[in-house]
Amino acid sequence: MPATLLIDGRWVSAPATFDVVDPASRTVLGQAADAGPGQAQEALTSAAAAFRGWADTDPETRGGYLRAAAAEIRTRQGELATLLSRENGKPLAEANGELAGAARMLEWAAEEGRRAYGRVTPANAAGPGLVLRAPVGPVLAITPWNFPASMLLRKVGLALAAGCPVIAKPAEQTPLIATALLRIVQDTGLPAGVLQSLTTTRPGELVGELLADRRLRKVSFTGSTEVGLGLLRQTGDLLRRTSLEMGGHSPAIVFDDADLEAAAAGVVAGKFFNAGQSCTAVNRLYVHESIKDDLLALIEKKTAALRVGRGDAEGTNVGPLIDEAGLTKVENQVADAVGKGAQVLVGGHRRDDLPGHFFEPTVLVDVTPDMLISHEETFGPVLAVSAFATDDEAVELANSTDYGLAAYVFGNDLRRLWRTLDRLDFGVLGVNDPAPVRPELPFGGQKNSGQEREGGAEGIDAYTETKAVALRLH
Length: 474
Ligand code: ADP
Fold this sequence. Notes:
- The protein is of the alpha/beta class.
- It folds into 2 domains: 5-246 and 449-470, 3-Layer(aba) Sandwich (Aldehyde Dehydrogenase, Chain A, domain 1), CATH 3.40.605; 250-438, Aldehyde Dehydrogenase, Chain A, domain 2 (3-Layer(aba) Sandwich), CATH 3.40.309.
- Helices cover 39% and strands 21% of the residues.
- It contains 15 helices and 22 strands.
- The protein has helices at 37-56, 59-75, 77-88, 92-112, 150-162, 175-186, 203-211, 225-234, 260-272, 292-304, 324-339, 372-375, 391-399, 414-423, 458-461, and strands spanning 5-7, 10-12, 17-22, 27-33, 119-121, 129-135, 139-142, 166-169, 195-197, 218-222, 241-245, 250-254, 282-288, 343-346, 362-365, 382-388, 403-404, 406-410, 428-431, 446-447, 450-451, 464-470.
- The strands form 6 sheets. A 7-stranded mixed beta sheet has the order 14-15-16-13-12-18-19, sandwiched between helices.
- Strand 10, helix 8 and strand 11 (241-245) form a beta-alpha-beta unit.
- Adenosine-5'-diphosphate is lined by residues 142-144, 169, 171-172, 203-204, 207, 223-224, 227, 230-231.
- Residues 142-144, 169, 171-172, 203-204, 207, 223-224, 227, 230-231 line the site of adenosine-5'-diphosphate.
């Protein structure tokens, strides 16, 4: 029986298990324990008991566990990357990059936890005031399958650094890499109860059980907007801190003064990374009409050169989608766009010759706002291209979505770039940079893409409460 549940400091199994499927071959890769509400209660009881002791542990000591975990991840990166690639489908190079990023995030959290400063306010007639920051309490961290290492360890690292015990709830598609990483964190010698993990096929039931319990003080969620909004509704009667990192539908604007070669490379990298299954993926490309043909010629060439295949095969650039539902969604978007007049520049079909959930890297041109792909998150290897005439039109098109996670701008005129950044309603902005996620920067979205931030100094804020102390000393 797979022992993938971490409860009260011990790895345990459950009466039921579930299969984990390799998306490149649709064969069974392994099993995980299927936790239910009873185990969720046990985990929360243990986390609640561990809270005070962990909060009182000094930040340098808390950071020490995280630094040790980061070092171990770096030592075992090759083996972990293979597991991550097989379970999620992403190319090995990307799996390695994700793990290195996760280790850096743990190190950032370890350092930043020591800087959870408060403030002293000037004395009034009675005396000075203090602003203190205290760990919020037991945290539930719900994480997705598309970045099963970095999303998980970002939450775990920041919460532990801030002094909060964590109950991790990894995605059911990728429990094996999550479990391997959490084992590494636990094996640094964490006290029992500080870290728990629950793999399950019944996330709604299990999370509902935890949300109904007032001992749980914070939920940090990364996943779909639909589930995230449902969580907000569920927390209605027992208010608690909630961080949401949900969907995105990122635009990229390419101005006529951009370096076209760099812009084409940036758009192709930002689009097809993780087979387009990223909430920050470039989904909608808006290109100035005067350079449209030149830019598209470069993008077509680069896209056609991408190699589709198993993530763990040599030379693969684009792996499979996670499941059949992901493949069908992409197919529907392409069929809808073509039916409404879009042209397929390259790609356009599923790869029936391969056993897994593969779709060709695809570029659609002459995309219009009435098409599904203009407003529904893509989550697959399809780029939708439209032209614009003025800067204002580009910004209006980019903002014409309920999402507000990431946006990209390619150009060289600083004044124009700055004006555009000011007007874009997105939380993360890449300027000539298709990979704008760094541990030092707060990550998160506006509008229906989410609330609160992960990373940066804001990442620690998300796991602390503010206490105002008024002193009467005069
Ligand atoms: P995706 O559609 O990309 O798989 P989901 O939002 O369904 O994204 O999944 C993200 C995370 O949310 C996963 O860990 C999943 O198990 C969890 N999840 C799914 N449904 C619920 C729910 N009803 N309540 C809480 N968590 C959920």
